[in-house]
Design goal:
With 308 residues, the chain is α/β, with parallel strands linked by helices. It is built from 8 helices and 12 strands. Strands 3-2-1-10-11-12 form a 6-stranded mixed β-sheet. Strands 4-5-6-7-9-8 form a 6-stranded mixed β-sheet.
Amino acid sequence: MKNRPAAYGLLLWITLVCRMLQTSAQAKQPVIDFTSDTQGRLLIEKIIRQHNNNETATQLIFHEINDRRPAALFILGDVVSLGYLNAKWKPVDTNLKLLRGNNIPVYAALGNHEVMINAAKGEQRFQSRFPEHRATGYVEVVDSVAVVLLNSNFSKMTPADIRKQDAWYRQTLARLDTGAAVKLVIVGCHHSPYSNSKVVGSSLPVQRHFVPPFMQSKKCVLFLSGHSHNFEEFKMGGKQFLVIGGGGGVHQPLNTTGLPDLAANYKPEFHYLEVIRLNDSLQVVSRRLKVDFSGFEDGLRVVVRKTL
């Protein structure tokens, strides 16, 4: 009986150590970051659209991501306002150098602004910054999560390239579904299959080419896109679709009587996404810039799981 307090003390100490080790392990869980539409404003946007220190917001997002040291960053298009002009890349080049200098890989998908006016030169400048990129789709794996990035600029693609990407996409999802190394799949492109934006709306080609294979894949759990400069959340067929176009582009008005937006009450002007794999699910957190630009805070949080 005399040894019982000592035994209880030892048990309590062991429990505390175990919890500390568990917390430490969770803290080191690889984080995958996503952003979109980090482009600066075009002259016409400066004139006709309301703005709010957009370029400053973009810089704050990149520096916040750098400070938090994710395992990788994915940019879902419209990295710059005019891809063919080298001068438009200068702020991005500084941010890419900062991130990569801290061993943070950065990958990207083509947006419409990268191929605007002079598509060939825009793609060339884009490719020089993101050498892993493939214009007909590519995949990167982080912590057993495969991120499939697709080109949704269908009007700038040849019919042969569209067929090539469609075939590659279906074959890749089939391979990932059967492979043991990948637990979950995220699909990303620039144009949103579903959006209530009054400026850009939903992309029917993305719905036709990208959504059906995503829905059929047993490991695909999250579809990410931009183009709409908003945060929007939709659930279709039990699967999660998020629009994360808050990287700095001029805010776009939304149709409040359109598609059922699950995040109707969450509309930060500037934001990015953090994703952590927890066994066979993903913890998704939208990090929003505070309205006074004093820092970032956790906003909407979603857990997504396999439905098949």
